[in-house]
Specification:
Blueprint lengths: L4 E7 L8 H17 L4 E3 L17 H17 L6 E10 L2 E10 L2 E7 L19 E5 L2 E5 L3 E5 L2 E8 L11 H7 L4 E6 L7 H16 L2 E6 L15 E5 L2 E6 L6 E7 H11 L11 E4 L22 H25 L5 E4 L4 H17 L6 E5 L7 H13 L3 E4 L3 H11 L8 H22 L2 E4 L3 H6 L12 E2 L6 H17 L3 H11 L19 H5 L2 H13 L4 H11 L6 H17 L1 H4 L28 H7 L1
Parallel strand pairs: 1-2, 2-3, 5-7, 8-15, 9-10, 10-11, 16-17, 16-19, 17-18, 19-20
Antiparallel strand pairs: 1-14, 3-4, 4-5, 6-7, 8-9, 11-12, 12-13
Helix pairs in contact: 1-2, 6-7, 7-12, 8-13, 9-10, 12-13, 15-16, 15-17, 16-17
């Protein structure tokens, strides 16, 4: 369970209604198989031992007594397993019958949790859970009885598990919401429901949404094969969602144990971030500890691009949503600042290309002529024919105004003024060009009563790979929340869209820009080719975007980020390469905060922002020493 990961499972054994002993045997077999596969938390459906569709048989004393003795058998049969399991059964307590779930770990009955709100039909047999927590004797063991119980272990402080039996967790009175507010990071939901058309889609979307709201992992295990078909069919659906993301799902009528690796550390951090448990009243809760030995849990293999949805359909929707936020934000700023247009530096690279595409959309929204956009390309010492040509072709294809201003003479004059040799390719040589370009843009914007659109992206801001008061500065930075990996996909999305609309020329230019190496082009080219590759200087952006998401958005420790990266990129980068670039990331992220402390305005797009106005509040003189030492 290193780094807060724990393997969980959901199983719906094939049962026979009212065949308690057979159902118990099936559950024992499933528990043993799950434990062998490394599962530490296993959830069975509601009323597993009897079947959820037993009807008036629930009122038979024989069935009730069989369940109590069968639970004792299950506890004894699983006492050697390092497995916290939850199994459903009817329980008779103080003369009332409850639809309950028993929590069992290594031969101990930790608690019995009754269902809080039986449905109208279920009220024929089952009582509503009583208030408070009491001590009872059940299955020959003293145990706790009540709903407000959270299970945890000292060996994994982040782990806190609670049960919502058959709960409609959309209900504001739902025990799931109370448990999450009280600090539970995993909600187990044993339940049953008849299958219906579209039910799977509705359940999936709902559980994803609730896990996000609760900042928790939710494990759903529904009754399946063997339930009565008198009035419906039960499909044994199972899902595991975590903080808004569906980790895995078992399709209807599929058997076996669904397993997933939950990150309870993430849930704990998200709970702190969202404040979901800040005002919790935990006075009514009982915390039950069980000693779960620390053992290795395989680090899950995450996607390489956390900023990009894995589903193509979802990405298409996301791309349009992002471009709309960027362009409407810019249109609003142009309108509110009474600007007559926009000015931006167009280099023929990826960042300025996306900025221009967004600006064109903004002009269309405002109903203004695209000629109100002045695309300025400013060739200097490192500019190649390819990027210059692409900049000019793109501005023409999109119908914007274009200005070509060669800044070599101005930069050479500046070198002369400050006594810097034009043969000295130090940082002065590079930054002088970036600052001259920004000066030109600002002054041309003043001439036209226009607004300078910034082009810098989230990845560059994280690394501080921008010239202070050069490309670092603008009047509105439309790409400030867009990481480099996402930017590439967005430009590709627009190229596809333009092709479908018949704008082949513009699409062709975008394709060539996408194929051009990322470079600031501040050093003289070699044989006409780009001499300065950004990823050769600061490292691959796919790695840095991965580091950025999991270190800043998730708040993970450097060592955890390292292990996740090694697992995700095992087929591309050696561990020592990943470690080297990760050290680079932390050094630059901390040392370059001063540039982010005075960023221009820009639209908030996603869940991660480095804006000093609420996105990232961080002192510019923070030390990275302890983060780097964690990697050693």
């Amino acid at each position: 369970m290193k780094d807060g990961f724990i393997k969980v499972g959901a199983n719906a054994p094939e049962i026979a209604v009212a065949a308690v002993r057979d159902n118990t045997g099936a559950a024992v077999t499933a528990a043993r198989e799950a434990a062998l596969s490394g599962v530490k938390i296993l959830v069975f459906p509601e009323l597993t031992l009897t079947g959820a569709t037993a009807g008036d048989l629930f009122l038979q004393r024989r069935l009730i007594s069989l369940c109590e003795s069968a639970l004792s058998e299950y506890i004894e049969a699983t006492e050697e397993l390092e497995l916290l399991s939850f199994i459903g059964l009817p329980t008779l307590v103080d003369g009332r019958l409850y639809d309950s779930v028993a929590a069992i770990y290594r031969g101990e009955l930790l608690a019995v949790i009754p269902k809080s709100y039986p449905t109208r039909e279920e009220s024929r047999w089952f009582a509503e859970a009583p208030l408070g927590i009491s001590e009872i004797v059940f299955a020959g063991r003293e145990t706790l009885f009540g709903t407000d119980i959270i299970f945890g272990t000292e060996s994994m402080p982040e782990l806190s598990v609670a049960v919502a039996v058959g709960s409609d967790i959309s209900n504001i009175y739902s025990p799931a919401r109370r448990h999450a507010a009280a600090g539970a990071n995993i909600i187990v939901n044993p339940s049953y429901a008849a299958e219906a058309v579209t039910r799977g889609e509705v359940l999936r979307d709902f559980i994803k949404s609730e896990s996000r709201v609760l900042s928790a992992a939710i494990i759903v295990s529904e009754a399946g094969e063997g339930e009565s078909g008198t009035d419906g069919i039960y499909s044994g659906r199972a899902l595991v969602a975590e903080c808004g993301k569906l980790l895995c799902e078992r399709d209807a009528f599929d058997g076996g144990t669904l397993t997933a690796v939950c990150d309870v550390e993430r849930c704990a951090l998200e709970s702190v971030r969202t404040g979901s448990s800040a005002d919790a009243d935990t006075a009514s809760y009982e915390y039950v500890e069980f000693e779960l030995p620390l053992s290795e849990c395989e680090t899950p293999k995450l996607g390489k691009s956390p900023f990009i949805p894995e589903c193509d359909r979802e990405f298409l929707h996301r791309a349009e949503e992002i471009l709309t936020i960027q362009s409407r934000s810019l249109a609003n700023r142009i309108k509110r600042s009474y600007s007559k247009g926009a000015v931006l530096g167009l280099s023929g690279g990826l960042d300025s290309t996306l900025a221009l595409l967004v600006t064109v959309r903004a002009m269309d929204i405002l109903g203004l002529d695209r000629k109100n956009i002045l695309s300025v390309t400013m060739p200097c010492f490192g500019t190649t024919e390819r990027t210059r040509s692409n900049a000019e072709l793109l501005a023409e294809a999109l119908g914007t105004s274009l200005a070509v201003i060669d800044i070599k003479a101005a930069v050479n004059q500046h070198f002369s003024d400050i006594g810097h040799s034009a043969d000295d390719y130090s940082v002065v040589y590079e930054n002088a060009q970036a600052r001259e370009r920004t000066q030109v843009l600002m002054d041309m914007a003043n001439q036209r009563g226009a607004l300078v659109v910034g082009t810098g992206d989230l990845s560059e801001l994280a690394l501080g790979f921008a010239t202070y008061n050069g490309d670092h500065m603008s009047m509105y930075g439309v790409n400030a929340d867009i990481p480099k990996t996402l930017m590439r996909r967005l430009v590709s999305y627009v190229a596809d869209k333009l092709e479908k609309e018949g704008a082949d020329r513009a699409a062709g230019v975008l394709r060539d820009i996408l194929a051009t190496p990322v470079s600031p082009e501040l050093l003289p080219p070699k044989d006409g080719e780009i001499a300065q590759c950004t990823e050769g200087i600061v490292g691959p952006y796919e790695l840095h975007d991965f580091f950025l998401y999991y270190s800043v958005r998730r708040g993970y420790s450097p060592s955890k980020v390292r292990r996740l990266a090694e697992r995700a990129f095992c087929d591309e980068y050696a561990p020592e390469v990943i470690l080297g670039w990760l050290k680079m990331f932390y050094r630059r992220f901390f040392s370059q905060q001063f540039k982010r402390s005075c960023l221009p305005d820009g639209p908030r797009v996603g869940s991660l922002s480095l804006s000093p106005r609420g996105g990232l509040i961080m002192p510019s003189d923070s030390s990275s020493a302890d983060w780097l030492s964690d990697l050693e």
